[in-house]
Design a protein that fits this description.
The complex is a heterodimer of chains A (219) and B (80). Chain A has ten helices and no strands. Chain A has 219 residues and is mainly α. Chain A folds into two domains: 12-94, RNA polymerase sigma factor, region 2, helix turn helix motif (Rna Polymerase Sigma Factor, Chain: A); 117-218, Arc Repressor Mutant, subunit A. In chain A, helix 1 (12-20) packs across helix 2, helix 2 (24-43) crosses helix 3 and helix 8 crosses helix 10 (191-218). The longest helix of chain A has 28 residues, at 191-218. Chain B has one domain (7-79): Arc Repressor Mutant, subunit A (Orthogonal Bundle). The longest helix of chain B has 18 residues, at 38-55. Chain B is elongated and about 65 Å long. Classes of the chains: A mainly alpha (219), B mainly alpha (80). At the A-B interface, helix 2, helix 3, helix 7, helix 8 and helix 10 of A face helix 1, helix 2, helix 4 and helix 5 of B. The structure holds zinc ion. Zinc ion binds at residues 2, 7, 10, 33, 37, 39-40 of chain B. Zinc ion (ZN) binds next to helix 1 and helix 4 of chain B.
């Protein structure tokens, strides 16, 4: 059985049992472990922080009510994220920030390129489909530049511009560190779809960072 | 040379490559391309750097739950 990290020393099934028994340590663990990640996920769906806090609160209440019926077919984490997503999507539709559940977790049709096609040579050039000019090499910048407050702002803005399905997968996987099988389970999508969404999202984040650092270096 | 796998196709494979989801034969072609192509090498490193930056996001957003919310939740927890 998987061990649970972050202040809870027992297994996941012991945590579930403790939550059913209304154990105080289990409550503390749940609240401290999940409040931040749930808030970050919720912020992608609703227009304000206040509404996101309400979504998180409703999620915890649903967890308390539902824990007796939790069957352990998915991990506790996946189950909790799924509850949050359902509440956040419903709320997001009402606040006109999001799209209905059924249309979220699928890959949008149409070609979406990881890199602007203009960055590559055409069939008339010497090396078709090879870079016309290499990406600006921001990966070699010093760590303090990479982690500057402006970089974080660029990342947040780029996250906000992502389509809901791409943002969801990216936040779960790359920000919250949820495993790929757990994401497929929580969102009911295939591994392939998940990777397509993830790739498109990561490519946009990379492009936003390149644009930011390239401009900053010229200025 | 890199003609057998153009840069424009390689950049679409990077997430699969990082996830270990590609056939060994394709991985070998990508590795061979990366040796010769500074642009794609840079692109791959930038995708890795992007993941690293994303993974550090929560650290500066660790926030305490508001005390009133925590108290309300604890009460609900004990009484449901
Ligand atoms: Zn290349």
């Amino acid at each position: 059985m998987a061990r649970v990290t972050g202040g809870w020393s027992g297994t996941e099934s012991e945590l579930v049992a403790a939550l059913r028994n209304r154990d105080d340590d289990a409550f503390r663990h749940l609240v401290e472990q999940y409040h931040g990640p749930l808030l970050r996920l919720a912020l992608g769906y609703v227009p304000s922080r206040a509404v996101a806090e309400e979504v998180v609160q409703d999620t915890f209440l649903a967890v308390f009510r539902g824990i007796d019926a939790f069957e352990g077919r998915s991990s506790l984490k996946t189950w909790i994220y799924r509850i949050l997503l359902n509440i956040a999507r419903t709320r997001g539709v009402r606040e006109q920030r999001s799209i209905p559940f059924a249309s979220v977790a699928r890959v949008e049709p149409g070609e979406e390129r990881a890199v602007d096609p203009d960055r590559f040579q055409t069939e008339h050039d010497r090396w078709p489909q090879h870079w016309t000019s290499f990406p600006f090499a921001w990966e070699h910048l010093p760590e303090e530049r990479l982690l500057a407050a402006e970089t974080i702002d660029v990342i947040r803005a780029a996250l906000d511009r992502l389509p809901a399905a791409q943002r969801e997968v990216l936040v779960l996987r790359d920000v919250l560190g949820v495993s790929s099988p757990e994401i497929c389970n929580a969102l009911a999508i295939s591994e392939t779809n998940q990777r397509v969404l993830l790739h498109r999202a990561r490519a946009k984040l990379r492009a936003a960072l390149e644009a930011h650092f390239a401009t900053e270096s010229v200025a | 040379m890199t003609a057998d796998l153009p840069c424009q196709e390689l950049v679409e494979l990077v997430t699969d490559y990082l996830d270990g989801a590609l056939a060994p034969e394709l991985v070998a072609r990508i590795d061979a391309h990366l040796v010769d192509c500074p642009g794609c090498h840079s692109f791959l490193d930038q995708m890795r750097a992007t993941l690293r930056l994303l993974g550090r996001l929560p650290a500066d957003e660790v926030e305490q739950m508001p005390a009133a919310m925590r108290a309300a939740l604890l009460e609900a927890y004990r009484s449901t």
